[in-house]
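Holo prediction. Input below; ligand is NPW.
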Amino acid sequence: MPVYPSDPYPYDLPPYIVTTEEMRQIEGRVFRAGMPIAALMEKVGQLLSQRIQELWPQNRYPQLGVLVGPGHNGGDALVVARELMLRGYGVILWHPFRRAKPLTADHLRYAQSLGIPVSPDINDLGHCQGIIDGLFGFGLERPLTGEVLESVSQLNRWQKAVISIDIPSGLDSDRGTVLGGAIKADHTLCLGLRKLGLMQDHALDVIGKLELIDIGLPAKDITAILGDRPPVQCLTPALWQTLPLRRSPSTHKYRQGHSLLVGGSATYGGSILLAALAARETGVGMLSVAVPHHLKPLILGQVPDALVIGCPETKNGAIAQLPGDLDLGRFQGIGCGPGLTTETPAVVDQLLDSSCPLALDADGLNLLAQGDRLSQLVHRKAPTLLTPHGGEFSRLFPSLIQGANRPLAARQAAQETGAMILLKGARTAIANPTGQIWINPESTPALARGGSGDVLTGLLAGLWSQMEPLSATLAATWWHSQAGCLAAQENTVLGVNAWRLTNYLIPALRSHPID
Ligand SMILES: NC(=O)C1=CN([C@@H]2O[C@H](COP(=O)(O)OP(=O)(O)OC[C@H]3O[C@@H](n4cnc5c(N)ncnc54)[C@H](OP(=O)(O)O)[C@@H]3O)[C@@H](O)[C@H]2O)[C@@H](O)CC1
Ligand SMILES: Nc1ncnc2c1ncn2[C@@H]1O[C@H](COP(=O)(O)OP(=O)(O)O)[C@@H](O)[C@H]1O
Ligand SMILES: [K+]
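Structure of the complex:
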């Protein structure tokens, strides 16, 4: 199973993610330059037909139902319907609309001239093995209603195999929200460039497996529209090449970075251990772990190569303070938060006051949300990363409506705080203060369990001591989810506990050739 769908991006552009408006502007340049709309539609239809035949061989999918909308998404679907019929598939069209765009109307008329049946009744598609969804693409402007909505619900109840063209119909192509109702697709064949709405956590159950179909949009048209904007793009396997895997023979441990992890408590002893186990897989030269005194034997027992700093502790077994002689200037990457509890804000204040690159997670974030710490963050000079999951993000940034558009909310939070924001989720979004956004297109629900985030914090702390912070953050996020995917592949989606995840970090790394 390819862990990452092959990305047909031949023009070495970043794998951009676009808004509906940006897509329209790019396509507008192509049409103004002379590409006939009908020609592009025909090209798109041929590309889609080829891919659908690979996904749905005729012997297993002899009868196909095609949903034909009133716009060019419907036009695409009609080209596909005709081409598949000519290749021997049984095809029936569903088109309940009274009017359609001229090009779509022409294709409908031609399909009918070829004898392809058209019905306004969705039940006439009940015998089909597969449904191709060409109802709406990025032109959907308002919620589905009436008969269209009822038919979409009926179709979803059938639970047939569904391939959506460009976007599952009913989905808002920017926000990924459902407008009244939406087709639930097994595959979404996205045309040309990924739409922002397809990268939203809440849309994933509707999208199914997302594939990009290269329709030959010239790089010059893409960069003409996107070039001067802070890009929104996907993480890609190229990140494997950025990991610090090349070492000079003459290196020594002090040249491979020194990271510090701060956390752990009587209530939460394991999370800091998980972070430490992950940090050491990054090959960091030295790893220090500051924990309450009573946890020192636990860490030493499991991570004997770590320098464990036993800290004075509160009566509840949390860190009361960092040792006075701890020189934070020795560290090039600090990860603070796993299992910390919110008992001792002074620990976070001390780290925030330091000039160290700092990643705050879990209770480190909950303490940051208290008082005016967050508003002061913009004055911090050293690189700072916040790694909230949805709940922590809402506590930190209650005014930012992340639900509808998590990547844009992360961007706004980054611009407000001057920190990098890694908003964890099914499609983790990373934003930096200049407005750039990266979205991880590939992960696994196997990670949706306690401890997964602690492993990420360890990777971040370990890589921040060896790489430039942004590259380290992107690489850690990619590495973390790829390890999760590999672990799920070999242990089922239920078998990826955080401890096992730490044991899949090196196998995931090893499974990708390093040039
Ligand atoms: N541009 C190109 O040539 C290319 C485009 N491509 C393909 O075309 C898609 C974009 O095409 P599009 O712009 O025609 O929009 P699309 O989503 O097909 O239809 C929207 C239409 O539906 C209507 N409508 C809206 N809401 C409605 C509702 N709730 N209930 C009922 N009707 C509703 C609305 O009409 P209205 O009623 O608003 O007048 C509008 O006309 C794109 O996703 C890709 O697949 C690619 O092939 C590349 C080349
Ligand atoms: N449905 C999902 N699909 C993919 N990744 C997920 C999903 N749910 C959570 N994750 C990932 O799992 C990790 C969970 O982190 P977090 O909630 O902080 O866990 P904890 O703090 O308990 O360690 C994050 O990296 C997140 O991106
Ligand atoms: K569609």
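The first strand starts at residue 17 and ends at 18. That is the main takeaway for now.
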